[in-house]
Design brief:
Length: about 400
């Protein structure tokens, strides 16, 4: 969970107790609405796929209208809540209209969702429909696209290999004049080589294609959520040839030293206490702008609940310490990290530098659940929630070519 203050741990704790993991109230709201036509129509003798499709489409058209009303409500700065917010209290902002009926039709043609008689529309069905609607809405006005790394561009813990079909899509985005950024929790100040290793396939393909300097300069890496900025440039390699690499550039993020120390000290102490209390196979690592856990014994299993306990313990400790800085405490799937700052600040600073508005910016990531570090991006730009790089590829094909069956991403 990422926060601009330290007042959310009790709400996080209640939410964890009440909700299934990886859930979203807006998606659950749509899921509940679609359950009625599923129950009414699919068990009738006169059931047809067309009848169910029309019923689903009518509901999704109404949801699109609620989203549009919500956008106008927020733009008018009214004190009262919108109709959508009255029904989904946690709903955030939207920066473009969403044509959910068209997105549903696209998804239904591929999956035949309307033909299902025993399995109603699921969380994942609706998540993908929302993704399609968002990508379709922004594709003609996109100026900046940002990505999470693990499970978004490449497998968890893996590198971005040259055989990935996403590499051609990213280069095509750059060639079309769109700025592209990897926004990651990994923080390596003054060490661009560590990012270059993760992005080896992309940088190698950029070098192979001999892309112009102007095109290369549109690719960035934001490290440590928002603390470090690297830009792609071409320079000499060890053998004298020109190759693409990352160069650290000036970045506006700075923290008051005493507040920074207070946050990191409290987070480290909390993690050490919780690790000892649950006898977990972790050691604590501290960086200039982050503190987190490193596995000391990879053979010993660690459960999701134990990792969530670490996150909640840290947030409770930071609440008690009265930290003044924004931070992000998140469950990374196999570890827990606390970063000073969050992806909201990283993306906002990029937007300001590049002149991109909320409705011209898209963030794609896999960590949009309540304990994920992508969720903060929803406050400043359009978002797409993927489960793996394959879904990222589907979104990019729609973005670039108008459909998932468009031109192939790789050249």
């Amino acid at each position: 969970a990422c926060t601009s203050s330290s007042t959310m741990s009790s709400a996080y704790q209640r939410s964890y107790q009440l909700r299934p993991h990886r859930r979203d109230e807006f998606i659950e709201f749509i899921k509940a609405l679609l359950l009625t036509p599923f129950v009414v129509h699919t068990r009738q003798a006169f059931h047809t796929e067309q009848i169910v499709s029309a019923a689903y489409g009518e509901i999704l058209t109404s949801v699109s209208q609620l989203v549009q009303d919500h956008i106008k409500h927020r733009q008018s700065s009214l004190v009262s809540t919108s109709a959508l917010q009255d029904m989904v209290r946690s709903v955030g902002g939207f920066f473009t209209p969403l044509d959910l009926r068209e997105a549903f039709d696209t998804y239904d043609r591929r999956t035949h969702l309307s033909a299902r008689r025993f399995v109603p529309p699921s969380f994942n069905d609706i998540r993908v429909i929302l993704n399609i609607a968002q990508v379709q809405a922004i594709r003609t006005q996109l100026k900046l696209i940002t990505f999470d790394g693990d499970q978004t561009l490449y497998a968890d813990g893996a590198n971005f290999h040259r055989d990935s079909p996403l590499i051609g899509d990213i280069i095509e985005l750059l060639l079309r004049g769109i700025h592209v950024a990897l926004v990651t929790a990994a923080g390596y100040k003054g060490a661009p080589g560590k990012y270059e290793q993760r992005l080896e396939g992309l940088l190698a393909e950029m070098s192979h294609r001999d892309l112009p300097a102007e095109v290369l300069s549109r690719f960035f890496v934001v490290g440590g959520e928002c603390n470090y900025l690297f830009q792609c440039r071409k320079g000499p390699s060890a053998d004298g040839h020109l190759q693409c690499g990352l160069h650290e550039v000036d970045w506006s993020t700075s923290w008051e030293p005493a507040s920074l120390a207070t946050l990191l000290d409290a987070a480290a102490a909390s993690l050490e206490d919780a690790v000892a209390r649950m006898q977990l196979p972790f050691r604590i690592m501290r960086k200039p702008h982050a503190v987190g856990t490193i596995r000391s014994d990879k053979k010993r299993p660690v459960s999701r609940e134990q990792l969530d306990e670490l996150v909640l313990s840290v947030k409770h400790a930071l609440d008690k310490a009265g930290v003044a800085l924004p931070y992000c405490a998140f469950n990374g799937g196999s570890d827990v990290w606390v970063d000073v700052g969050n992806k909201l600040l990283g993306i906002q600073t990029l937007q300001k530098q590049l002149g991109a508005t909320e409705s011209e910016t898209l963030h794609i990531g896999d960590q949009f659940s309540i304990d994920g570090n992508d969720v903060a991006a929803r406050e400043c730009c359009c978002t797409v929630w993927v489960s793996d790089p394959r879904e990222t590829g589907s979104a990019l094909r729609i973005l670039l070519y108008g459909s998932e069956d468009g031109a192939p991403g790789a050249a």
